[in-house]
Amino acid sequence: MTAAPRGQSAAMLPNRSIPDAVVIPELAYRDVGEAVAWLCAALGLSERLRIGEHRAQLNVPGGAALVVTDGGSAPAGDGHRVMVRVADLDAHHRRAVAHGAKILSPPTDYPYGERQYSLADPAGHRWVFSQSIADVDPAAWGGKLQA
Questions:
Q1: Coil, helix or strand for 30?
Q2: What pLDDT digit, counting tens, does each position of 126-136 carry?
Q3: What is the value of pTM for the model shown?
Q4: DSSP 40-65
Q5: Which end of the chain, N or C, is more open, meaning fewer C-beta atoms within 10 Å of its C-beta?
Q6: How far apart are CA 114 and CA 51, in angstroms?
Q7: Per-residue model confidence (pLDDT) at position 77
Q8: Would you give the DSSP letter of residue 136?
Q9: Is 23 exposed, middle or buried (0-12, 13-18, 19+ CB in 10 A)?
Q10: How far is residue 68's CA from residue 108's CA, in Å, rounded to a whole number?
Q11: What domains, with CATH codes, occur in the chain?
């Protein structure tokens, strides 16, 4: 039996299109390229994957990950989310609904090999839950691995 990659339970499918981490903060910036350059230079992060001009995945030393998203002209702080990888998205969604979660987007399959849904918690914080459903080469959907 092979051990699961670091940060994943044995039940999680690996996917090259998403960082190998369980919890992934998503921070919105007005300029993704500028934010990535600063975060890498100032904080020692490294760029893992660039998705157009609107999104980038960064490696955080120690095995963590961060996603930088395009926040447009929204005030600082808007657009921040926490992404959590789960082994069974549909069961997770059912549990959240049963506890009165405000669902922002229903479970949906995406071409980058993830099934995701999002919700707002009682304080208004936004969460995205993601299950890998296929190991997809980022080049297949327009992503560009940086390292």
A1: coil
A2: 889 999 999 99
A3: 0.74
A4: HHHH--EEEEEETTTEEEEEETTTEE
A5: N
A6: 15
A7: 63
A8: -
A9: exposed
A10: 21
A11: 23-145 (3.10.180.10)
